[in-house]
Specification:
The complex is a heterodimer of chains A (about 70) and B (about 150).
Chain A: E1 9-10, H1 12-18, H2 23-30, H3 34-41, H4 49-58, H5 63-66, E2 67-68
Antiparallel strand pairs in A: 1-2
Helix pairs in contact in A: 2-3, 2-4
Chain B: H1 2-5, H2 9-34, H3 46-49, H4 52-70, H5 73-79, H6 82-108, H7 117-152
Helix pairs in contact in B: 2-4, 2-7, 6-7
Classes of the chains: A mainly alpha (about 70), B mainly alpha (about 150).
Chain lengths: ~70, ~150
């Protein structure tokens, strides 16, 4: 697990690197700014459902692989 | 027209920064006058020029709104994404909260027992100066931070 938001744990950086994508490439595929990807990876920002689904689709995985609740 | 609507990080920075900077300039000018510091230079036509910060905000908001609705969809998904929007909301909410407290304090410190047109006029200028200073600083700092993040990550 990467750096965490208090409400959400995330694996985004690991999955992005496994997919061989830079933050810029992932942001272009998910149609958001690179700042957003950076903020999500660093646990600063919790993405919306739509953005989480777009990121998961780009990385060819499930949303649950990327994000987990702290107690779940 | 298309050039005006086509937005970029730099154009957005310029628009927001100019709005913020002009507001700080006007706030500083008013505060110097209100606190009785004599400066050699004065705005020549108050009836006309005191509208400049408001007109700038109005025009800038119009340009940004037009670029959001009429600009290139792919570009706008990145420029106006949800994380940026959240930060704008937070900064606006903070600005309104500070303004609310400031206006409450400004109302509280007025000499209501000797109320006259001069006092009323001064209070309007105090409120304008406070609001311009608050939002001017927020807009300027935010625009610089936003652009620096875009450039450097």
């Amino acid at each position: 697990m990467g750096k965490h938001h208090q409400n959400l744990l995330n694996n985004l950086e690991d999955y992005r690197k496994k997919a061989g994508l830079t933050q810029q490439e992932l942001s272009e595929a998910a149609e958001v700014s690179r700042k957003s990807i950076n903020a999500i990876e660093n646990g600063i920002y919790v993405p919306s459902t739509v953005l989480a689904l777009k990121i998961a689709k780009t990385l060819k995985c499930n949303v649950e692989d990327l994000f987990k609740l702290p107690n779940g | 027209m298309n050039n005006l609507i086509a937005m970029s990080y730099f154009k957005r920075f310029l628009i927001v920064f100019i709005c913020g900077f002009v507001q700080i300039f006007y706030a500083a000018y008013l505060l110097l006058n209100l606190f009785g510091y004599s400066i050699e230079w004065h705005i020549s036509n108050h009836d006309l020029f005191m509208f400049i910060p408001g007109v700038l905000v109005f025009v800038s908001s119009g340009i940004l709104t037009a670029s959001y609705y009429l600009g290139d969809r792919k570009n706008n998904n990145i420029l106006y994404d949800e994380y940026t929007a959240l930060r704008y909301y937070k900064i606006a909410a903070f600005g309104y909260a500070v303004n609310g407290i400031g206006i409450f304090i400004l109302f509280s410190i007025q000499d209501w027992s000797n109320w006259n047109f001069q006092n009323a006029n001064n209070m309007i200028y105090q409120i304008a100066a406070f609001a311009w200073l608050t939002f001017g600083i927020l807009l300027t700092v935010f625009s610089i931070g936003d652009y620096k993040e875009y450039r450097n990550g």
